[in-house]
Amino acid sequence: MSSKESNETNKSRRQFLGAAAATATMTVAPGVTVIGLAQAKPVDQAVSSKNRWGLLIDSNKCASGCDACVTACNTENGIEEIHGPETDPQWIRKVTLKHKASGRETSLPLMCQHCEHPPCVDVCPTGASFRREDGIVLVDRHTCIGCRYCMMACPYKARSFVHETLTQQVEYMPRGKGCVESCTLCVHRVDAGSGDPACVEACNKENHNAMMFGDLNDKYSDINQELRAYKTRELRADLNLNTGVRYRGI
To answer: What pTM was estimated for this model as a whole?
Structure first.
């Protein structure tokens, strides 16, 4: 192929990708349809490893009967109840831990832990599961083939498979039948600089203040100050995943 032909081919490829990005609905594989295309970060604002976004959850403040964080997550990301938690996608769920000796019960929210070394990324055959430079672990719906290897690899059971055709979607969070998905730390809010994830915001509105979001790399951030001042722990710290979600009181 001549240099001129090669340039024309590349130009055509760019035009095709540009047209695809403007399409409202795209079928990426038989039975897998994604509505809308979200650009996580403006072209002129590159994601940087300078930041490491994460959560601090204080189980001492988490009320056992409260599910405000779950409801807020579902509303924010267009996740509707269809059949129930056994089969419906769950980006965040409330779990109860019980101490075997004392019988003490602790309630806490559980979601993707946004690991520095995510097992879901390691096993993904297409690269659909990936970790951004700022620590947020995401799924590219356009390359996810629904194999669910990532679901098996995740030690936190934090990923869900979309079994049903979706109708109630929000434009900033495209979802699709046949794809795997999980908590994004409300990446659309992070990239817009528009505040805390929906779960944190809802928890604060209930005056529980059990969840804190921030930059783990910023030594002056509130979350970093809390991590320095009080003892916290990772779930399954033995796996050495260096999670972006930390817990206090468990």
So the answer is: 0.80
